[in-house]
Protein backbone atom coordinates (compact mmCIF):
# COMPACT_ATOMS: atom_id res chain seq x y z
CA UNK A 1 0.00 0.00 0.00
CA UNK A 2 1.19 3.48 -0.87
CA UNK A 3 1.26 5.87 2.07
CA UNK A 4 -0.63 8.96 0.90
CA UNK A 5 -0.69 12.22 2.82
CA UNK A 6 -3.95 13.70 1.58
CA UNK A 7 -3.94 17.40 0.75
CA UNK A 8 -7.68 17.45 1.52
CA UNK A 9 -8.02 15.00 4.42
CA UNK A 10 -11.39 16.35 5.53
CA UNK A 11 -13.07 16.29 2.12
CA UNK A 12 -15.39 13.38 1.40
CA UNK A 13 -18.33 12.80 -0.91
CA UNK A 14 -20.23 16.04 -1.60
CA UNK A 15 -23.77 16.50 -0.34
CA UNK A 16 -24.93 16.77 -3.95
CA UNK A 17 -23.66 13.27 -4.73
CA UNK A 18 -25.10 11.87 -1.50
CA UNK A 19 -28.52 13.44 -1.99
CA UNK A 20 -28.53 12.55 -5.70
CA UNK A 21 -27.82 8.90 -4.99
CA UNK A 22 -30.47 8.79 -2.27
CA UNK A 23 -33.00 10.48 -4.57
CA UNK A 24 -32.33 7.95 -7.32
CA UNK A 25 -32.60 5.04 -4.90
CA UNK A 26 -36.04 6.22 -3.72
CA UNK A 27 -37.26 7.53 -7.10
CA UNK A 28 -37.76 10.95 -5.52
CA UNK A 29 -38.81 14.18 -7.19
CA UNK A 30 -35.46 15.96 -7.33
CA UNK A 31 -35.32 19.67 -6.50
CA UNK A 32 -31.86 19.37 -4.96
CA UNK A 33 -29.14 20.02 -7.53
CA UNK A 34 -29.03 23.38 -9.24
CA UNK A 35 -29.68 22.72 -12.88
CA UNK A 36 -32.74 23.09 -15.14
CA UNK A 37 -34.54 20.02 -16.44
CA UNK A 38 -35.33 21.65 -19.79
CA UNK A 39 -33.27 22.34 -22.89
CA UNK A 40 -31.58 25.57 -23.98
CA UNK A 41 -33.18 27.83 -26.55
CA UNK A 42 -33.49 25.96 -29.90
CA UNK A 43 -31.89 28.99 -31.57
CA UNK A 44 -28.75 28.54 -29.44
CA UNK A 45 -28.67 24.81 -30.18
CA UNK A 46 -28.96 25.59 -33.88
CA UNK A 47 -26.03 28.00 -33.66
CA UNK A 48 -23.93 25.40 -31.82
CA UNK A 49 -24.69 22.77 -34.47
CA UNK A 50 -23.80 25.20 -37.24
CA UNK A 51 -20.49 26.07 -35.56
CA UNK A 52 -19.55 22.38 -35.26
CA UNK A 53 -20.34 21.86 -38.94
CA UNK A 54 -18.36 24.99 -39.87
CA UNK A 55 -15.08 23.51 -38.67
CA UNK A 56 -14.64 24.95 -35.16
CA UNK A 57 -13.49 21.60 -33.81
CA UNK A 58 -9.86 22.23 -32.85
CA UNK A 59 -8.26 24.25 -30.07
CA UNK A 60 -9.69 27.69 -29.46
CA UNK A 61 -7.35 30.57 -28.67
CA UNK A 62 -6.14 30.26 -25.08
CA UNK A 63 -8.02 33.37 -23.90
CA UNK A 64 -11.14 32.36 -25.86
CA UNK A 65 -12.62 33.32 -29.20
CA UNK A 66 -12.06 37.04 -29.72
CA UNK A 67 -15.58 37.49 -31.12
CA UNK A 68 -17.02 36.17 -27.85
CA UNK A 69 -14.74 38.29 -25.67
CA UNK A 70 -15.74 41.36 -27.66
CA UNK A 71 -19.47 40.80 -27.17
CA UNK A 72 -18.90 40.09 -23.44
CA UNK A 73 -17.02 43.38 -23.14
CA UNK A 74 -19.90 45.20 -24.81
CA UNK A 75 -22.47 43.48 -22.59
CA UNK A 76 -20.67 44.41 -19.36
CA UNK A 77 -20.18 48.01 -20.42
CA UNK A 78 -23.86 48.35 -21.35
CA UNK A 79 -25.07 46.78 -18.10
CA UNK A 80 -22.56 48.03 -15.55
CA UNK A 81 -20.70 50.93 -17.16
CA UNK A 82 -17.25 49.36 -16.92
CA UNK A 83 -15.13 48.52 -19.96
CA UNK A 84 -13.00 45.35 -19.88
CA UNK A 85 -10.58 45.16 -22.80
CA UNK A 86 -11.47 42.04 -24.80
CA UNK A 87 -7.84 41.24 -25.63
CA UNK A 88 -6.33 41.55 -22.16
CA UNK A 89 -9.03 41.51 -19.46
CA UNK A 90 -11.44 38.67 -20.39
CA UNK A 91 -10.85 34.90 -20.50
CA UNK A 92 -13.31 32.14 -21.41
CA UNK A 93 -13.23 29.28 -18.89
CA UNK A 94 -14.51 25.72 -18.43
CA UNK A 95 -17.38 26.94 -16.30
CA UNK A 96 -17.31 29.38 -13.40
CA UNK A 97 -15.98 26.75 -10.98
CA UNK A 98 -12.78 26.47 -13.02
CA UNK A 99 -12.49 30.25 -13.01
CA UNK A 100 -12.91 30.28 -9.22
CA UNK A 101 -10.38 27.47 -8.73
CA UNK A 102 -7.85 29.11 -11.04
CA UNK A 103 -8.24 32.46 -9.28
CA UNK A 104 -7.57 30.91 -5.88
CA UNK A 105 -4.64 28.86 -7.15
CA UNK A 106 -3.15 31.95 -8.81
CA UNK A 107 -3.20 34.32 -5.86
CA UNK A 108 -3.39 32.34 -2.60
CA UNK A 109 -0.04 31.33 -1.06
CA UNK A 110 0.58 29.18 2.00
CA UNK A 111 -0.56 31.00 5.12
CA UNK A 112 -2.66 33.58 3.29
CA UNK A 113 -6.04 34.26 4.84
CA UNK A 114 -9.17 34.21 2.67
CA UNK A 115 -12.46 35.57 4.00
CA UNK A 116 -15.36 33.35 2.94
CA UNK A 117 -18.92 34.52 3.45
CA UNK A 118 -21.02 31.71 4.96
CA UNK A 119 -23.18 29.95 3.81
CA UNK A 120 -20.78 29.39 0.91
CA UNK A 121 -20.69 27.41 -2.33
CA UNK A 122 -18.82 24.25 -1.47
CA UNK A 123 -15.95 24.63 -3.96
CA UNK A 124 -14.37 27.68 -2.31
CA UNK A 125 -12.85 26.22 0.83
CA UNK A 126 -11.24 23.04 -0.59
CA UNK A 127 -9.44 25.14 -3.21
CA UNK A 128 -8.17 27.53 -0.53
CA UNK A 129 -6.93 24.65 1.63
CA UNK A 130 -5.35 22.88 -1.34
CA UNK A 131 -2.99 25.82 -1.82
CA UNK A 132 -2.20 26.30 1.84
CA UNK A 133 -4.57 29.16 2.50
CA UNK A 134 -6.47 29.71 5.73
CA UNK A 135 -10.25 30.06 5.57
CA UNK A 136 -11.65 32.90 7.70
CA UNK A 137 -15.44 32.42 7.80
CA UNK A 138 -17.82 35.34 8.24
CA UNK A 139 -21.45 34.30 8.61
CA UNK A 140 -24.43 36.14 7.18
CA UNK A 141 -26.88 36.86 9.99
CA UNK A 142 -30.58 36.40 10.63
CA UNK A 143 -33.20 34.58 8.62
CA UNK A 144 -32.71 37.17 5.86
CA UNK A 145 -28.95 36.47 5.68
CA UNK A 146 -27.56 39.99 5.95
CA UNK A 147 -23.93 40.99 6.39
CA UNK A 148 -22.76 42.37 9.72
CA UNK A 149 -20.17 44.79 8.38
CA UNK A 150 -18.48 45.34 11.73
CA UNK A 151 -17.83 41.59 12.02
CA UNK A 152 -16.61 41.53 8.44
CA UNK A 153 -14.21 44.39 9.06
CA UNK A 154 -12.87 42.78 12.23
CA UNK A 155 -12.10 39.58 10.28
CA UNK A 156 -9.57 41.43 8.12
CA UNK A 157 -5.94 41.13 9.20
CA UNK A 158 -2.48 41.79 7.82
CA UNK A 159 -2.60 38.23 6.41
CA UNK A 160 -5.81 38.72 4.44
CA UNK A 161 -5.07 38.05 0.76
CA UNK A 162 -8.55 37.58 -0.65
CA UNK A 163 -12.26 38.01 0.01
CA UNK A 164 -14.83 35.85 -1.80
CA UNK A 165 -18.37 37.14 -2.29
CA UNK A 166 -21.34 35.69 -4.14
CA UNK A 167 -24.35 37.71 -5.27
CA UNK A 168 -27.04 36.68 -6.10
CA UNK A 169 -26.29 34.20 -3.36
CA UNK A 170 -26.31 30.42 -3.46
CA UNK A 171 -27.83 28.86 -1.36
CA UNK A 172 -29.93 31.58 0.31
CA UNK A 173 -31.32 33.43 -2.74
CA UNK A 174 -30.39 36.77 -1.14
CA UNK A 175 -28.76 39.63 -3.04
CA UNK A 176 -26.38 42.40 -2.05
CA UNK A 177 -27.63 45.96 -2.30
CA UNK A 178 -25.88 49.07 -3.54
CA UNK A 179 -25.40 50.01 0.12
CA UNK A 180 -23.66 46.67 0.74
CA UNK A 181 -21.33 47.15 -2.20
CA UNK A 182 -20.43 50.69 -1.18
CA UNK A 183 -19.67 49.48 2.35
CA UNK A 184 -17.49 46.68 0.99
CA UNK A 185 -15.68 49.18 -1.24
CA UNK A 186 -15.12 51.51 1.73
CA UNK A 187 -13.66 48.72 3.88
CA UNK A 188 -11.33 47.33 1.19
CA UNK A 189 -10.17 50.72 -0.11
CA UNK A 190 -6.44 51.25 0.42
CA UNK A 191 -5.75 47.57 1.08
CA UNK A 192 -3.90 45.02 -1.03
CA UNK A 193 -6.81 42.56 -0.83
CA UNK A 194 -8.03 40.79 -3.96
CA UNK A 195 -11.80 40.36 -4.35
CA UNK A 196 -13.17 37.24 -6.02
CA UNK A 197 -16.77 37.95 -7.01
CA UNK A 198 -18.91 34.94 -7.93
CA UNK A 199 -21.69 36.42 -10.09
CA UNK A 200 -22.97 33.34 -11.91
CA UNK A 201 -26.62 34.26 -11.26
CA UNK A 202 -26.26 37.88 -12.38
CA UNK A 203 -29.21 37.64 -14.79
CA UNK A 204 -31.59 36.04 -12.28
CA UNK A 205 -32.75 38.85 -9.97
CA UNK A 206 -36.38 39.48 -9.02
CA UNK A 207 -39.01 42.06 -8.11
CA UNK A 208 -37.44 44.91 -10.05
CA UNK A 209 -34.10 44.76 -8.25
CA UNK A 210 -30.83 45.26 -10.13
CA UNK A 211 -27.74 43.08 -9.93
CA UNK A 212 -25.01 45.00 -8.17
CA UNK A 213 -21.91 43.76 -9.97
CA UNK A 214 -18.55 44.78 -8.54
CA UNK A 215 -17.88 46.09 -12.07
CA UNK A 216 -20.12 49.06 -11.17
CA UNK A 217 -17.81 50.18 -8.35
CA UNK A 218 -14.42 51.53 -9.50
CA UNK A 219 -12.29 50.61 -6.49
CA UNK A 220 -13.85 47.15 -6.25
CA UNK A 221 -13.41 46.60 -9.98
CA UNK A 222 -9.74 47.54 -9.72
CA UNK A 223 -9.06 44.66 -7.29
CA UNK A 224 -11.58 42.08 -8.52
CA UNK A 225 -11.84 38.92 -10.58
CA UNK A 226 -15.48 38.41 -11.59
CA UNK A 227 -16.56 34.85 -12.42
CA UNK A 228 -19.63 34.32 -14.60
CA UNK A 229 -21.49 31.39 -16.13
CA UNK A 230 -23.07 30.75 -19.52
CA UNK A 231 -24.36 27.43 -18.21
CA UNK A 232 -26.48 29.09 -15.51
CA UNK A 233 -27.64 31.81 -17.88
CA UNK A 234 -28.66 29.66 -20.85
CA UNK A 235 -29.91 26.42 -19.19
CA UNK A 236 -26.82 24.49 -20.32
CA UNK A 237 -24.85 23.63 -17.20
CA UNK A 238 -23.45 20.49 -18.84
CA UNK A 239 -21.53 22.57 -21.36
CA UNK A 240 -19.26 23.88 -18.56
CA UNK A 241 -18.83 27.28 -20.17
CA UNK A 242 -18.03 30.41 -18.22
CA UNK A 243 -15.77 33.43 -18.25
CA UNK A 244 -13.97 35.79 -15.95
CA UNK A 245 -13.03 39.44 -16.15
CA UNK A 246 -10.34 41.35 -14.29
CA UNK A 247 -8.00 44.32 -14.66
CA UNK A 248 -5.01 43.52 -16.87
CA UNK A 249 -2.58 43.28 -13.94
CA UNK A 250 -4.66 40.53 -12.31
CA UNK A 251 -5.60 38.84 -15.57
CA UNK A 252 -1.96 38.46 -16.58
CA UNK A 253 -1.36 36.33 -13.50
CA UNK A 254 -4.62 34.41 -13.90
CA UNK A 255 -3.67 33.60 -17.49
CA UNK A 256 -0.34 32.09 -16.42
CA UNK A 257 -2.19 29.41 -14.46
CA UNK A 258 -5.15 29.05 -16.83
CA UNK A 259 -2.92 28.12 -19.75
CA UNK A 260 -1.54 25.09 -17.89
CA UNK A 261 -4.76 24.22 -16.09
CA UNK A 262 -7.20 24.15 -19.03
CA UNK A 263 -5.58 26.13 -21.85
CA UNK A 264 -8.78 26.50 -23.88
CA UNK A 265 -12.43 25.42 -23.91
CA UNK A 266 -14.98 24.29 -26.50
CA UNK A 267 -14.45 26.38 -29.62
CA UNK A 268 -17.75 25.71 -31.41
CA UNK A 269 -19.85 26.63 -28.40
CA UNK A 270 -17.87 29.87 -28.02
CA UNK A 271 -18.61 30.81 -31.63
CA UNK A 272 -22.30 30.06 -31.12
CA UNK A 273 -22.44 32.09 -27.90
CA UNK A 274 -20.75 35.04 -29.59
CA UNK A 275 -23.58 35.18 -32.11
CA UNK A 276 -26.32 34.46 -29.59
CA UNK A 277 -25.19 37.22 -27.20
CA UNK A 278 -25.59 39.85 -29.91
CA UNK A 279 -29.27 39.90 -28.96
CA UNK A 280 -29.45 41.20 -25.35
CA UNK A 281 -33.00 39.88 -24.99
CA UNK A 282 -31.53 36.39 -24.73
CA UNK A 283 -30.26 37.19 -21.22
CA UNK A 284 -32.32 40.19 -20.18
CA UNK A 285 -35.58 38.18 -20.21
CA UNK A 286 -34.29 35.71 -17.63
CA UNK A 287 -35.36 37.81 -14.62
CA UNK A 288 -38.98 37.55 -15.70
CA UNK A 289 -38.72 33.92 -16.77
CA UNK A 290 -37.36 32.75 -13.42
CA UNK A 291 -39.55 35.08 -11.36
CA UNK A 292 -42.54 33.36 -12.96
CA UNK A 293 -41.02 30.00 -11.94
CA UNK A 294 -40.47 31.21 -8.38
CA UNK A 295 -43.96 32.64 -8.08
CA UNK A 296 -45.53 29.50 -9.55
CA UNK A 297 -43.74 27.33 -7.00
CA UNK A 298 -44.49 29.57 -4.02
CA UNK A 299 -48.16 29.90 -4.96
CA UNK A 300 -48.42 26.13 -5.24
CA UNK A 301 -47.14 25.64 -1.67
CA UNK A 302 -48.71 28.70 -0.02
CA UNK A 303 -50.99 26.53 2.11
CA UNK A 304 -48.19 24.22 3.31
CA UNK A 305 -46.70 24.27 6.81
CA UNK A 306 -43.39 25.59 5.48
CA UNK A 307 -42.54 29.27 5.98
CA UNK A 308 -40.96 31.16 3.11
CA UNK A 309 -39.50 34.52 2.13
CA UNK A 310 -39.50 34.82 -1.67
CA UNK A 311 -36.04 34.37 -3.16
CA UNK A 312 -34.52 37.68 -4.30
CA UNK A 313 -32.31 36.02 -6.92
CA UNK A 314 -30.88 32.72 -8.26
CA UNK A 315 -33.18 29.79 -9.01
CA UNK A 316 -33.19 28.55 -5.42
CA UNK A 317 -35.85 28.95 -2.76
CA UNK A 318 -35.29 28.38 0.95
CA UNK A 319 -38.13 26.84 2.94
CA UNK A 320 -38.23 27.14 6.74
CA UNK A 321 -39.49 23.92 8.31
CA UNK A 322 -39.19 25.03 11.96
CA UNK A 323 -42.95 24.66 12.54
CA UNK A 324 -42.85 21.05 11.33
CA UNK A 325 -39.93 19.46 13.19
CA UNK A 326 -36.85 20.26 15.26
CA UNK A 327 -34.72 17.74 13.35
CA UNK A 328 -31.31 18.76 12.06
CA UNK A 329 -31.64 19.77 8.41
CA UNK A 330 -29.49 16.89 7.14
CA UNK A 331 -31.71 14.38 8.94
CA UNK A 332 -34.94 15.99 7.74
CA UNK A 333 -33.62 16.17 4.16
CA UNK A 334 -32.91 12.44 4.23
CA UNK A 335 -36.30 11.65 5.75
CA UNK A 336 -37.99 13.85 3.15
CA UNK A 337 -36.48 11.63 0.47
CA UNK A 338 -37.07 8.29 2.15
CA UNK A 339 -40.60 8.90 3.42
CA UNK A 340 -42.00 11.54 1.05
CA UNK A 341 -39.98 11.04 -2.17
CA UNK A 342 -38.76 14.64 -2.46
CA UNK A 343 -35.10 15.72 -2.62
CA UNK A 344 -33.70 19.05 -1.41
CA UNK A 345 -30.39 20.32 -0.03
CA UNK A 346 -29.78 20.99 3.70
CA UNK A 347 -28.26 24.42 4.27
CA UNK A 348 -25.93 23.40 7.08
CA UNK A 349 -23.51 21.81 4.58
CA UNK A 350 -22.78 25.33 3.30
CA UNK A 351 -22.28 26.78 6.77
CA UNK A 352 -20.31 25.04 9.49
CA UNK A 353 -20.62 22.83 12.52
CA UNK A 354 -22.41 25.42 14.68
CA UNK A 355 -25.26 26.04 12.23
CA UNK A 356 -28.65 25.13 13.70
CA UNK A 357 -31.32 26.86 11.60
CA UNK A 358 -34.16 24.94 9.96
CA UNK A 359 -33.91 25.59 6.22
CA UNK A 360 -33.86 23.39 3.13
CA UNK A 361 -32.94 24.62 -0.36
CA UNK A 362 -35.15 23.78 -3.33
CA UNK A 363 -34.30 24.43 -6.99
CA UNK A 364 -37.29 25.77 -8.94
CA UNK A 365 -35.55 25.66 -12.35
CA UNK A 366 -37.84 22.81 -13.30
CA UNK A 367 -40.83 22.26 -15.57
CA UNK A 368 -44.18 23.07 -14.03
CA UNK A 369 -45.24 19.44 -13.86
CA UNK A 370 -42.20 18.68 -11.66
CA UNK A 371 -42.95 21.71 -9.47
CA UNK A 372 -46.56 20.49 -9.18
CA UNK A 373 -45.36 17.07 -8.00
CA UNK A 374 -43.08 18.70 -5.43
CA UNK A 375 -45.87 21.02 -4.24
CA UNK A 376 -48.27 18.14 -3.72
CA UNK A 377 -45.70 16.45 -1.48
CA UNK A 378 -44.86 19.62 0.47
CA UNK A 379 -48.54 20.42 1.01
CA UNK A 380 -49.10 16.97 2.44
CA UNK A 381 -46.45 17.22 5.16
Automatic annotation (TrEMBL):
Q: Where is the Aminotransferase class I/classII large domain?
A: 28-377
Q: Which Pfam families match?
A: Aminotran_1_2 (PF00155)
Q: Which UniProt keywords apply?
A: Aminotransferase, Pyridoxal phosphate, Transferase
Cofactor(s) for this protein?
A: pyridoxal 5'-phosphate
The answer on whether this UniProt entry bears the keyword Transferase reads: yes
Q: Does the keyword Transferase apply?
A: yes
Q: Kindly list the GO CC terms recorded for this protein.
A: cytoplasm
InterPro entries cross-referenced by the UniProt entry: Aminotransferase_I/II_large, Kynurenine-oxoglutarate_AT, PyrdxlP-dep_Trfase, PyrdxlP-dep_Trfase_major, PyrdxlP-dep_Trfase_small
Q: Which GO terms describe its molecular function?
A: kynurenine-oxoglutarate transaminase activity; pyridoxal phosphate binding
The record's annotation in PANTHER family points to: FI04487P
UniProt lists the family membership as follows:
Belongs to the class-I pyridoxal-phosphate-dependent aminotransferase family.
Q: What is this protein called?
A: Methionine aminotransferase
Amino acid sequence: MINIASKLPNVGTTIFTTIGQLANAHNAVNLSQGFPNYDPDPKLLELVGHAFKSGYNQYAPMQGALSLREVISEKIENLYGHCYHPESEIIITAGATQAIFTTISTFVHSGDEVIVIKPAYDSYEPAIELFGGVVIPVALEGNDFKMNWEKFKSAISSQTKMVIINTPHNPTGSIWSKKDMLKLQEILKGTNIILLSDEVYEHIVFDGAKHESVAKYPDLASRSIICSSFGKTFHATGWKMGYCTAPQQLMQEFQKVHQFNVFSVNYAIQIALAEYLKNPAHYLHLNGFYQNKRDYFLDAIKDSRFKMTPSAGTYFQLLDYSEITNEKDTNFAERLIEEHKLASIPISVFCGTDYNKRFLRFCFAKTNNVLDQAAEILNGI
